[in-house]
Specification:
With 356 residues, this protein is an alpha+beta fold. The chain has nine helices and eleven strands. Helix 1 crosses helix 2 and helix 2 runs antiparallel to helix 3.
């Protein structure tokens, strides 16, 4: 761990040094990248500095123990520094865990009524209101992209775009089937019914920066066909480019210049490959969505909202920590659940790291 921390500290110093160079401000992309990296490294570097200081304080206190008049005070300072160092060591272990690459992204959320008829759709509407209040409490921005409502005010399906710092890192735990147990407003006999709604949380798709490896290209020249007089017959200015990994072929013979034809063909090829990559990305997101929400069956659930008992139970948590006050949760108070899930996830990853 100490070797990793030393490497991080060295990298931080290098980034700071580059940001002090006036030349970097002429390149906005590089400046943004360095600024972002500095921001990401700062908490780790600060914790590492405090960890080292605690170690130095322990050594200083240990040396003072040789003085009989200062021994008692030195022992207190030693134990205080030791506790601080142990706490910082645990904090550093968490900070060193691999980051979710999507943590900085905005969120696309989809809510759908599942099994349970109209009651399931009413519950989906309740979830929409719950997330709306949660987004407001975090200071994020939410846009309802589309919503299909029922006559009773339920939601068949809704699609939301949520923008804000930490949106993905907090909301990614909401994906799955949410089960509700309560007496529906549509139930005349007062019987408790179990219904379900599904929630899918996806990182907002970004434009794909498609880089073409020249080794993947086969470039052929040939004579243009059609009108063109003597130029057509004598000059092989037309270009055919084949992208070998995908088999995509582009031809261009509009220009008399081979260079211009090649430039135009590359632009067309890049556009085609970019579109194919977008389609592949969309297919991967669709598969991720299906894996997240399951079938919407009542038995598939991450969380149960039990209104008669006044509690929400998250089935991914254990012990007393898995139950939460339902009124607070339905009013957008999701932070206690998400904090518990984050802690559980970190503990599991720390355990895996220890076994590795």
């Amino acid at each position: 761990m100490l070797d990793k921390l030393k490497a991080v500290a060295d990298r931080y110093e290098a980034v700071v040094s580059q940001l002090e160079d006036p030349a970097v401000y002429a390149d906005s992309a590089r400046l943004a990248k360095l600024t972002r990296e500095q921001k990401e490294l700062t908490p780790l570097v600060e914790a590492y500095s405090a960890y080292r200081q605690a170690g130095s304080d322990m050594e200083a206190a240990r040396e003072m123990m040789g003085d009989s008049e200062l021994r008692e005070l030195a022992q207190e300072e030693y134990h205080a520094a030791k506790e601080r160092r142990e706490r910082l060591e645990q904090e550093l272990k968490l900070l060193l865990l691999p980051k979710d690459p999507n943590d900085g992204k905005n969120v696309v959320m989809e809510i759908r009524g599942g099994v349970g008829g109209e009651e399931a759709m009413l519950f989906a509407g309740d979830l929409l209101r719950m997330y709306t209040m949660y987004v407001e409490s975090r200071g994020w921005r939410m846009e309802i992209v589309s919503v299909s409502e029922t006559e009773l005010g339920g939601v068949k399906e809704a699609s939301l775009l949520i923008e804000g710092e930490g949106a993905w890192s907090r909301l990614k735990y909401e994906s799955g089937t949410h089960r509700v147990q309560r007496v529906p407003v549509t139930e005349s006999n007062g019987r408790i019914q179990t219904s379900a709604a599904t929630v899918a949380v996806l990182p907002e798709a970004e434009e794909v920066d498609f880089t073409i490896d020249p080794k993947d290209l086969q470039i052929d020249t040939f004579r243009s066909s059609g009108a063109g007089g003597q130029h057509v017959n004598k000059t092989e200015s037309a270009i055919r480019i084949t992208h070998l990994p995908t088999g995509v072929v582009v031809e261009c013979q509009d220009e008399r210049s081979q260079y211009k034809n090649k430039d135009r063909a590359m632009k067309i090829l890049r556009s085609k490959l970019l579109e194919a990559e977008r389609e592949k990305q969309d297919a991967a997101i669709a598969a991720q969505r299906r894996s997240q929400v399951g079938s919407g069956d009542r038995s598939e659930r991450i969380r149960t909202y039990n209104f008669p008992q006044g509690r929400v139970t998250d089935h991914r948590l254990a012990g007393d920590v898995k139950n939460f006050n339902i009124d607070a949760v339905m009013s957008g108070g999701l932070d206690p659940i998400i904090d518990a899930l984050t802690t559980a996830d970190q503990a599991a990853r720390l355990a895996e790291q220890g076994e590795a």
